[in-house]
């Protein structure tokens, strides 16, 4: 699915759009639509992880795509890294 013109930034934006769209609890969605969306989200994550980061922001995008936002009480090194990446991209740093 990846092409030479695909960038981590464009893949991240498509991923973020899909996650936002299918995370809305008020949006009507069928099980089949959710299954298809999860498959597409996984493909976008896989595509981004296959490309070497060109910038630090690309590395942060890869971290955000691969790891869930931590709970506010999580103090592990992984949580700290994810918070740093999410903050750099202007995203909420903890799971809401």
How is this structure best summarized?
With 96 residues, the chain is mainly alpha-helical. The protein has helices at 8-22, 31-49, 56-66, 77-88. It is 59% helix and 0% strand.
Describe, in plain words, how this protein is organized in 3D.
α3 (56-66) crosses α4. The mean pLDDT is 91. Helices cover 59% and strands 0% of the residues. The longest helix is centred in the middle third of the chain and has 19 residues, at 31-49. It contains four helices and no strands. The relative contact order is 0.15. With 96 residues, the protein is mainly alpha-helical. The chain has one domain (8-88).
Keywords:
96 residues; mainly alpha; globular
Query: What percent of the residues sit in helical stretches (DSSP H or I)?
Result: 55-70%
The helix/strand order is HHHH
| Radius of gyration, whole Å | 14 Å
Distance separating the two termini: 32 Å
pLDDT averaged over residues: 91
- The shape, in one word, is globular
Number of domains: 1
Q: In total, how many beta strands? A: 0
| Sheet of most strands | none
Low-confidence stretches: none
Number of helices: 4
Briefly note the structural class of the backbone: mainly alpha
| Share in β-strands | under 5%
SSE order and pairing:
Layout: H1 8-22, H2 31-49, H3 56-66, H4 77-88
């Amino acid at each position: 699915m990846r092409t030479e013109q695909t960038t981590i930034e464009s893949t991240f934006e498509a991923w973020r759009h899909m996650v936002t769209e299918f995370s809305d609890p008020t949006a009507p969605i069928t099980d089949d639509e959710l299954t298809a969306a999860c498959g597409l989200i996984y493909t976008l994550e896989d595509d981004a992880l296959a490309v070497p980061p060109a910038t630090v922001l690309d590395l942060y995008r890869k971290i955000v795509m691969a790891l869930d936002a931590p709970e506010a009480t999580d103090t592990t090194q992984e949580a700290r890294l994810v918070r740093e990446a999410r903050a750099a991209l202007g995203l909420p740093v903890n799971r809401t």
